TrEMBL record:
Record has Membrane as a keyword: yes
Transmembrane intervals: 6-26, 46-70, 106-127, 148-166
The protein's name: G-protein coupled receptors family 1 profile domain-containing protein
Keyword Nucleotide-binding: no
PANTHER family assigned to the protein according to its UniProt record, in alphabetical order: OLFACTORY RECEPTOR
Organism of this sequence: Loxodonta africana
Length: 192
């Protein structure tokens, strides 16, 4: 049960959400910065390619990080003091040096978390420039309404994910990890 939960629910879907948020920001960028070319740029074929890329990268990163984590030896009590079978919780119950696994997962985290975040920030940088150049207050308001919900979800999701996964192993309390897991696993999808 924990392997399925870790592999598919947490890692693969979490990775896919990071990448999908980047794809959504590109969609917003195209809609606001190139509205007359939107239908030409965002063809169904391009959308399909982006979805295949998102799921392919998500599955690959999930398989790598889960394989590394699940191959760690565990000694004694293998019970997780956590709501979900999270990767940091699995690493903590290992009875060996986990530095290599933590560094590998951290590197994958940079690819899966920070690269899409950088693309989102670049997209919203261009969107901000386009909105500031608009002369119509109604147009500015429409553009901000288009992006507002996405920016809220991006802020909540990336804030909790970066805090959970891109920090040194022992710096957060167990209860804090549980709360943050519930926060990005339940609150963010319900807002999206």
């Amino acid at each position: 049960g924990c392997i399925l939960s870790l592999m598919y629910v947490n890692m693969c879907l979490g990775s896919a959400e990071c990448l999908l948020l980047a794809v959504m920001s590109y969609d917003r960028f195209t809609a606001i910065c190139k509205p007359l070319h939107y239908l030409v740029i965002m063809k169904p074929h391009l959308c399909l390619k982006m979805m295949i890329m998102v799921w392919g990268i998500s599955l690959a990163c999930s398989a790598i990080s889960c394989t590394l984590t699940l191959n760690l030896p565990r000694c004694g009590n293998n019970l997780l003091d956590h709501f979900l079978c999270e990767l940091p919780a699995m690493v903590k119950i290992a009875c060996t040096d986990t530095t290599t696994v933590e560094m590998s997962v951290f590197a994958l985290g940079i690819v899966i978390v920070l690269t899409p975040l950088l693309l989102i920030l670049i997209s919203y940088g261009y969107i901000s420039q386009a909105v500031l150049r608009m002369k119509s207050k109604v147009g500015q308001r429409k553009a901000l309404n288009t992006c507002g919900s996405h920016l809220t979800v991006v802020s909540i999701f990336y804030g909790t994910v970066i805090y959970m996964y891109l920090q040194p192993g022992n710096s957060a309390s167990k209860d804090q990890g549980k709360f943050l897991t519930l926060f990005y696993a339940i609150i963010t999808p319900s807002l999206n």
